[in-house]
């Protein structure tokens, strides 16, 4: 089988080699049951991945010895499509359930392992995708449609093209479909996607240095609100909170539940703590470490004292009973404990000094 890239433009293609080695990581599923004897015999369903994040499920009704990374020709409407087997065995029904596929939904079948002729037609179709996208954008602009065509995907046999578009409102693209069909002489399918889906299809890297979650594994998107930033005490800076899709970053939802749970253990922010020497007002909190910092001034940081949440609640309870402790930090601690930095424990130049001593000893021996 041809190992060349089944690629379109902008690096969106894949190869049998990359699929086997995991280099093609968009929505990749690790099959931890692959080495279990009889795993492929549990079900004839297989998961097949196409360009970018598009996946579908098929029956291996012919009983082909399929494994992850095999390039196959699958049934489509009309004709056939070319994709890479991304999952087999027991995990496939679980993935279908996770994708909310209905049990009575029609599932097509795998025709065969891709032949040389299939690969040639596939390569020809993929080579047309970028030019088709550029032309279709101009056509939509000429028709005055408020939409953006973000990507085009040709079917493996070149008989159909999927146009992925973004639009803020409802778009009547009936005339657009007629013009596209006359221009490219293929069957046209329009699919509306959101800004997050477009970022997943394009790919890229986030400020964390890792591949975008929407391009690597995240398929189901949940709404992200500014409340997630407030719970985590993040700065409400749109430039820092927005991802490459210009929406709030999906990763803001990952830890917000832990922050909400931990915040219930903190004292009220409006509570004033009274001691025999001063009054203390809430300044900031380290939510996960359950540490609260108080200031003697309501508006500016002054005489800051950091104590545990338990100590703060204890002082509040004493105040409610008419008692005032001698000091706020009694039973708590003024400064939070930080993990030790091993690099600061010794001088990093100590290795150089040892080398110098050795050279000096050699000189002394030579003089003797």
List the helices and strands and how they pair.
Layout: H1 16-21, E1 45-49, E2 55-59, E3 71-75, E4 80-88, H2 91-98, E5 110-113, H3 116-127, H4 129-142, E6 148-154, E7 160-166, H5 174-184, E8 187-192, H6 195-202, H7 213-216, H8 226-231, H9 238-241, H10 256-263, E9 273-274, E10 279-286, E11 291-295, E12 305-308, H11 309-320, H12 350-367
Parallel strand pairs: 7-8
Antiparallel strand pairs: 1-2, 1-4, 3-4, 3-5, 6-7, 9-10, 10-11, 11-12
Helix pairs in contact: 4-5
How would you explain this protein's 3D organization?
This protein is α+β, with helices and mostly antiparallel strands. Among the domains are: 101 residues, no CATH class; 33 residues, no CATH class; 74 residues, no CATH class. Helices cover 30% and strands 18% of the residues. The protein is built from 12 helices and 12 strands. It has a 5-stranded antiparallel sheet. Helix 4 crosses helix 5. The longest helix has 18 residues. The radius of gyration is 31 Å and the shape is elongated. The protein starts with 15 loop residues before the first helix and ends with a helix. The N terminus is likely disordered.
